[in-house]
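FAQ

Q: What does a record look like?
A: Structure on top, sequence underneath. For example:
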């Protein structure tokens, strides 16, 4: 998307746009920050429902599956940005890493709450499933992609070992 389209869609002047976002990179970082905040809000809302960790994980997964099926879905903003800005020192890439580190840590915490022993591998598996679903969801019919993603989450919740009580 070009600057002229951003200005037209935002209904601001060029001077206003550049006053708030001196560069394209600044605009992208702001967009990613807003996307990160929206995801954090959805996770917080799922937690606020007072559900157990399994149900919170399911709610996070359902929100992702719903996003994939949204009209106009074009893949994950974070994965797309990382592909465009591969230098790990670049501010856009740093914004991507910050979000992904938070998301993984949050999932580790949620999977720990299930009482099973392999929380970190399960969280990494969830992120991998999410990344694949986000990539595939814009390439083909998103419905079976979302269904497959949710089925994978059920597998993570169902087929992991239960932690043995301490003796």
């Amino acid at each position: 998307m070009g600057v002229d389209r951003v200005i037209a869609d935002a209904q601001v002047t060029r001077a206003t746009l550049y006053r708030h976002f001196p560069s394209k990179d600044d605009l992208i970082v702001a967009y990613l920050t807003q996307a990160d905040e929206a995801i954090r809000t959805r996770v917080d809302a799922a937690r606020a429902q007072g559900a157990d960790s399994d149900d919170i994980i399911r709610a996070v997964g359902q929100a992702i599956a719903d996003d994939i099926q949204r009209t106009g879905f074009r893949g994950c903003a974070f994965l797309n940005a990382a592909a465009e800005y591969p230098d790990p020192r670049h501010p856009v890439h740093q914004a991507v890493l910050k979000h992904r580190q938070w998301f993984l840590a949050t999932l580790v915490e949620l999977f720990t709450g299930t009482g099973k022993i392999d929380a970190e591998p399960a969280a990494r598996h969830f992120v991998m499933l999410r990344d694949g679903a986000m990539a595939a969801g814009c390439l083909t019919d998103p419905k079976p992609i979302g269904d497959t993603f949710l089925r994978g989450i059920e597998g993570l919740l169902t087929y992991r070992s239960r932690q043995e009580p301490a003796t």
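Q: Is there anything notable about this one?
A: The mean pLDDT is 88.
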